Amino acid sequence: MFGYKASSRKTNIKIVGIGSGGNLVINQMISQGIKGPQYINLDTNYHFLSLCRAHQKLTMSQNSGSPIEISQIMEEAARNNRDYFLKMLKGSDVVIIVAALGGSVGSSLAPIVAEAAVEVNAVTIGAVTKPLTFGLKDRLIMAEKRVAVLKERVHTLIMVQNDVLQEKMGRTAVPADIFRLGDEMLIRGIQALITTLTCGEINSGRSSIAFTEVRSFSGNPCSTELKDFLKKGSTAFIGTGSASGKRKTIEAAKAAIIHCLTEKQSREADYIILNVTRGKESWLLDVNLLLKMAKKAFSEEAKIFFADTILNRDMGGEVNVTVIAGTRE
Ligand SMILES: Nc1nc2c(ncn2[C@@H]2O[C@H](COP(=O)(O)OP(=O)(O)OP(=O)(O)O)[C@@H](O)[C@H]2O)c(=O)[nH]1
Ligand SMILES: [Mg+2]
């Protein structure tokens, strides 16, 4: 079940960062050398965009007014420029839309970009953070509404809830720490997703990847099978864990699974993406044990996509595990 032949055509993945939060995530992915997808920055803040590093940058004019008024104006403008978005996304197999919900730019434009992505026939994924409930009420209402709209428009919505992170980090955590962890989770989640979706394709991961092995535990190429799962429609949550020492892979997997299970909805997952990232000096010991752990924790029926990513550098003995659990609505 190993070593699928790379398809003759590479999977075309476009990742669109929208608004400040979304673009910060994209910028970090580029800085970390995560190669393969085409990156697009979309924002109204021209100065901020000039500092961004995506392959393509799109700006829309900035308006004044309350966040709700600004969103309405922007939505209208985006609707009038639908052809522009269609052109931007044409030819993509997968579109991942990244935004921090609760602001005006990401919240209002993400659903419109999603609509265009579906129209060009791409598997359309939203990867978003939800704001803290102690934030401004306007932002919260906006985020809740947008989650509902996005669930209708995208095929799969991957969510990081800042409130859940705050609970995990404890009362002393400040918003900046929560945002940092949320961004890191999105990055690792997207990395796990694109690694699995592009299994066998050489430059799908970080530039320093020596070898990526993906198994789907059936006869089909896992990218096709995973795309089918994503397309059926689901809400997905991410868990991350790191460990070093003798039982590091198991410990990191345990931490990632526990982390993911803090989102109650993931307890009935239909599919699980499990990505182990290790340095070239580490050995992967028992894949079957990892799979058993995941099935026991989530669901015995869940389909598992397993990716083993070996970075071409020393990770100081540390192993990272990322889990994405997707549940059909
Ligand atoms: N993930 C993440 N979220 C952030 C960060 N900074 C702020 N947020 C959260 O993201 C929400 C949206 O903020 P932005 O991304 O700045 O909003 P925007 O879409 O650019 O729209 P504006 O309101 O016009 O700036 C805020 O309500 C915060 O909850 C960050 O660095 N990372
Ligand atoms: Mg902004």
What layout of secondary structure does this protein have?
Elements: E1 13-18, H1 19-31, E2 38-43, H2 46-51, E3 56-59, H3 67-80, H4 82-89, E4 94-100, H5 105-119, E5 123-130, H6 137-153, E6 156-161, H7 162-169, H8 175-197, E7 209-215, H9 222-231, E8 234-243, H10 248-261, E9 271-279, H11 287-297, E10 303-311, E11 319-327
Parallel strand pairs: 1-2, 1-4, 2-3, 4-5, 5-6, 6-8, 9-10
Antiparallel strand pairs: 7-10, 8-11, 9-11
Bound molecules: guanosine-5'-triphosphate (GTP) and magnesium ion.
Summarize the structure.
By secondary structure, this protein is an alpha/beta fold. The protein contains eleven helices and eleven strands. The longest helix has 23 residues, at 175-197.
Structure commentary:
With 329 residues, the chain is of the alpha/beta class. It has 11 helices and 11 strands. The model is unreliable at 1-7 and 202-208 (pLDDT under 50). Helix 1 crosses helix 8 (175-197) and helix 4 (82-89) crosses helix 5. The protein has helices spanning 19-31, 46-51, 67-80, 82-89, 105-119, 137-153, 162-169, 175-197, 222-231, 248-261, 287-297, and strands at 13-18, 38-43, 56-59, 94-100, 123-130, 156-161, 209-215, 234-243, 271-279, 303-311, 319-327. The chain has an 11-stranded mixed β-sheet, with helices on both faces. The protein has 2 domains: 13-154, Rossmann fold (3-Layer(aba) Sandwich), CATH 3.40.50; 208-327, Tubulin/FtsZ, C-terminal domain (60s Ribosomal Protein L30, Chain: A, 2-Layer Sandwich). The protein binds guanosine-5'-triphosphate (GTP) and magnesium ion.
